[in-house]
Give the backbone structure.
Amino acid sequence: MTNINFKKMGNVRPNSGAAGKVGTPEPSQGKMQIHNLIIVDESGSMWELEAMTKEGVNSVIDTIREAQKTHGDTQEHFLTVVTFRDVAIRTIIDGQPIDRVGKFDTYSPFGSTPLYDAMGESLTTLHERIKTEVDATAVVTILTDGLENCSMRWSLAELKEFIENLKEEGWTFSYMGSEHNVKEVTASLSIDNAVEFAHDTTGVSNTWSRERSSRRAYYDRMANEFVPEETAEEKRARRRQYNLSYYGNRVTPEKISRLQGNEVFVFGSNANGRHTGGASQAAMRHFGAVYGQGEGLQGQSYAIPTTGGRPLMREAIERFCTFAGEHPELRFYVTPIGCGNAGFSQREIAPLFKEAIALENVALPRGFWDALGLKM
């Protein structure tokens, strides 16, 4: 593994108004320290998304706080929030225990995009803080709506090498981007998990919802598989796998011919359950749908009635989302329900599945994701 160069450590300039005391947290015996680092673009082009960005960061803070309460016997959560614009890289919250973190509201978009400097400096600071702790790891999220254009201290090559080293140590990275080629940028940075969101309030709201659901799943995996007796290398190997699956595949395949034992085919039905055509007929022939049953789980299929208008369909979709949330052991593949004989467009139906964004065990058609402002 390539040695990491820490010569840039002196470039870090924490904001004088940063909340809380800076310092290395005291580890608790037998608990995993999870250091959550959120790096947020504060350049001028983010001004129209200012309110939703603050709301999104605060929603992630709530998610981390919930995880601390749920998994407090095995996890300790810490938070750092860094914003960047022009040459100003501000540490708003600096390595604080999550129960000491207040509301994020110090955010005023202006100027250019020093993305590489913001990432390099904040990653270096956090790595120096936790690198000697065996039971410590980091979850890093970057939000930006534009390309790097004014960094002076970090190059792309240096940053990519650094990220690759941190991934080897078991760090997890996710990238939420807009208004640029997200796949190309994340590939150049060696970041495995990325979502491209529409540059509007719907897109930024839904990308934070996707991020929260991925975090919950990550924290649950860490709690279920935390083994204090593991060797350092065993811990790193497990975390490397968690990084690769942080943003799981949430797109329904265009053609489904077979299912695994825990997978469910979700299709549109008429209220009387007359499964005589399209996806409903496939559900009855291959996945256990019952003729005459217009809604609910049947075999390895789940029927959602699409007749009777949007209000009734909305209620049925809400019931489906509740059911899926109560059964995390199952994986649901939603087909383009309502977009065949019912005559609706995917853009009309997709918003009805907004609640499903937060359910890691629900896959939606690619067209639904596009209509929700997320390019998957």
